[in-house]
Amino acid sequence: VNDPAGVPIDSLCRPSSSPQAITAGCIGKDGAALTDSSTACESCGSGFFLFRGGCYKAGQVPGSSICTKTEGGRCTTCKTEGSYIFQNKAATVTLGNECILCSDAKGADGVTGVAGCSQCTKADSNTGAATCSACQAGYVKDANANVCKPCGTGCSACSVDNTDQCTACLEGKYLNGNACIDGTGDTCGQGKYADPTTNECKSCATETSIPECTACTYSDSLQKPVCSACNSAEQNKLLKKNTDGTTTCVDANGCKSGSTHFVNDSSDKCIPCNDTTTGSTDNDRGKEGCMTCTKSSGQAPVCSACLSGYTGTDTCTKCADNCATCSEANNENRCLTCMTGYFPVDATDSQGKRCVPCDDAASGIEGCATCSFSGSLACSSCKPNYKQSGPADSVICTKACEDPTACGGTAGACNAIVISASGEMTYYCSLCGDSTKIPIDGKCVDKNTNANSNTCDRGVCTQCADGYFLYMGGCYNTQATPGNLMCKTAEGGFCTAAANNRYFKIPGASNQQQSVLACENPVGTTVGDSAYVGVEDCAACTAPSEAPSGAMAPARCTACSSSNKKPSLLGSGCFTCAMDGCSHCSADGVCEACTSAEQRPSTDGKQCIACNISGCTRCSEASKCSQCSDGYRLEGDTCVSTGPNLSTGAIAGISVAAVVVVGGLVGFLCWWFVCRGKA
Asked: Which ranges of the sequence are coiled-coil (predicted)?
């Protein structure tokens, strides 16, 4: 490692004077003390071992994946079972080179690995190259030689006969025929889209089940592709946008005036009466809250009835959240009837009604999904994973995995929350009431049948075997349900890749800690003295940065489950934001960004307006900018680049970005060079 940030301790770069470096016994050449410019250890103390310039603690991740036995700061037994490492059997082994990476073509003491190799066995003699049995991602094994051949650009797997012919792609790349591309714009080709769930370019017509679909994009919130253009020239089809965000292709008969949609003036789109963003002019835009409308060519649509949750007719104004009908707009105490899943209670001002969920903690029924109220509350259906019993008009909901036949009947035993790709939340066993059973794949099984060497006792698991990962008290297999809903791959007992963007991999987690979490999981988990938690109502997210000691880090939300909510630009929450065309909103319901690249939020953030001006973040009216981003200044109604004379905000932003990038590189390089090694 050649980095001024410090010395590698357990794969992280630590300052040479840090408690971690001192505890590890990291010292310089010939026993010399470390200096501020030291970048490697020359020897380690008791309980640690030296490996490629770093000190690793025996018996804990990541040291446990390298070495199983140590003595005097040296590894005496490498972890070679199905591993990426092998034991150096040279007559004289230099300190720190007891274990050789299968991919280390340079090696030490006359012993080497094979470039690009991921699994191997030591050479038959005590010197020479190891025998490679499997190659790293981006390489392919030559069947006739002890060689891993590098694949073409972006490939994770390729043909051994032609390494430029990809069969699978690295993360962030997409397989298109035999090539791996970045998937941006139209790089997948006409009629195709980049599918992030399989890292492939797929046919829009096939995957949307709409034969006339000629273009589409993948929707994070819907977890599937959505058609964006139809074959209007040859088949005279219109793109019909549905209120749930999906689309389809219809003929003119499927978009009649007076219904919930209207045909735009250019006759290529069937637009919902409440869609205020799709059209480029007022004549082609719907009205907020409108359910049915009529449209004449060259004129704006006229609303004839409002959607549930709005009041009025030709002009619709929004009721408070959860009200189906109301006597006064935007007042939670003036509800007349409630949305499905809610029931009326007395208003806080005692002059009307407000709507609360059927499972409201104060006055609802636990586990109830839909209900009715006529003098008293009665549940009509239960939420997922609640056992339903009793008469149809007054059902009883019992959390299914607290049934005596499931988790042992122990209260609070089924808190392992698993969220499916469609967003359905299901509970599994996090604890087994019977101490002879353990939670595997969310179910309590006999401890004696645990053939996969998961470490579990007294009804809970604390460490999992290879191919399994620890999650909320149990061990889950990535090849079985529900484990495959959360994690795609697991190595050494912890999740290395989330199954989809409904989950994120927890930074810094080990195989003795929970390593994956759902974007909207409200329970969260701890890693050391830091905590990680999901974001309420979040449907897709990315992992946060590693939380500082004693702090909590939420997921960075990129899409919300509820159609009337949008994530903030920072991804810190999902906020009520019913305005059409807005992609991101702040906590006070102000629009921060628009879905269309042709639009910008208004100055007050209450709508998205046509204003495609480079560098502009807000507009006062169509094509008139009122606020510019950093690196631009406002001149009249447009934004002008400030060029090399960067604004204070821009300089601050670059400084922060630099710190983040350097910090990320420090951790990554320490791991890559110290723990994995250069290929």
From this structure: none
